[in-house]
TrEMBL record:
It comes from Arthrobacter terrae. Keywords: Antibiotic resistance, ATP-binding, Nucleotide-binding, Transport. Residues 52-282 form the ABC transporter domain. InterPro entries: AAA+_ATPase, ABC_transporter-like_ATP-bd, ABC_transporter_ATP-binding, P-loop_NTPase. Residues 1-42 are annotated as: Disordered. One of its GO terms (biological process) is response to antibiotic. This is ABC transporter ATP-binding protein.
Length: 298
């Protein structure tokens, strides 16, 4: 596999150096509970704070609660899985956490910066692969990733080098000049991931990154993400594939009905069972099948 280059921040964590104006977050209200030091003054033990903190995050649609005042701490340098049934609130939670959807209540901090009070500073720290990603599909793959880098204020030579490395790492070199509109679903996922990685963020938030991706490409993406985490980055990934989350992640949260049912290390949450069995136990998703006796072969 081709190594993807990650620049180091002053703290040694992958990503661009902290913005000079990020100190504005120090005037933000302190996060409740264990996150009270998120806006600590320079010199505090900043590297010990979580990469992402959600407090009381709430969202409703048409009178129905989609996310019900959830609290979550994502440790810095972790590979964090978010699992839940369809309609559980995973995508809504991630959209609010990344500044794509305004919450009805609650707060979000990324490395100590309030996402909704200091959106520009917060988004500089994040790479995002949202659900149902929409891209400028009349650009070629190479043009799209280049545009993403330039949009982040990167110099053109650095962008050129990183685009080359990312396309090689994701096996997209031969399709670099093809319009994104002509990409398969799996290729679209990969080029969107390249766009999320181009600025070497400190936190990656990926909603179903392996959906529609072939097994070989999925294995390659896992290698890239594992290398990123090993370098000090943080990955938050939602997935329906329990076996994948159990093998890939070191922390996991189970969400259902807009509530966090369990959160912690993978071993803590699964409690000696497989993650899939523990998930079914928590969510209670099995149903009787007696009424399907007619499916038996004659």
């Amino acid at each position: 596999m081709t190594d993807v280059p990650y620049s180091s921040s002053p703290s040694g964590v992958p990503g661009a150096a902290r913005p000079a104006d990020s100190g504005a977050a120090e005037s933000s209200p302190a996060a409740p509970g264990g996150a009270e030091n998120l806006s600590a003054a320079p010199g505090a033990a900043a590297d010990n704070r979580p990469a992402l903190v959600l407090r009381g995050l709430t969202k409703g649609f048409n009178g129905k609660v989609a996310v019900n005042s959830i609290d979550l701490d994502v440790p810095s340098g972790s590979f964090y899985g978010l699992v839940g049934p369809n309609g559980a609130g995973k995508t809504t939670s991630l959209s609010m956490a990344t500044g794509l959807l305004r919450p009805d209540a609650g707060s979000v901090w990324v490395h100590g910066i309030n996402v909704w009070e200091h959106q520009l500073q917060a988004k500089r720290l994040m790479g995002i692969l949202p659900d149902g990603v929409r891209l400028f599909d009349r650009l070629s793959g190479e043009q799209l990733v280049t545009y993403a880098g330039l949009l982040r204020g990167m110099d053109r030579e650095t962008v050129k080098e990183r685009v080359r490395d990312l396309l090689a790492a994701l096996d997209l070199v031969k399709d670099a000049g093809t319009l994104v509109v002509d990409y398969s679903a799996g290729m679209t996922k990969k080029i969107a991931l390249a766009s999320a990685l181009i600025h070497a963020p400190r936190v990656l938030v990926l909603d179903e990154p392996f959906e529609s991706v072939d097994p070989v490409s999925a294995a390659n993406i896992r290698d890239i993400l594992q290398s990123y985490v090993s370098s000090g980055g943080t990955v938050i990934v939602s997935s329906h594939v329990m076996d994948l989350v159990q093998r890939m992640c070191d922390h996991v949260a189970v969400i259902a009905g807009g509530n966090v049912l369990a959160a912690g290390t993978v071993d803590e949450v699964r409690s000696g069972a497989s993650l899939e069995d523990r998930f079914v136990q928590l969510v209670g998703g099995r149903h009787e099948t007696e009424g399907l006796a007619w499916l038996r072969s004659s």
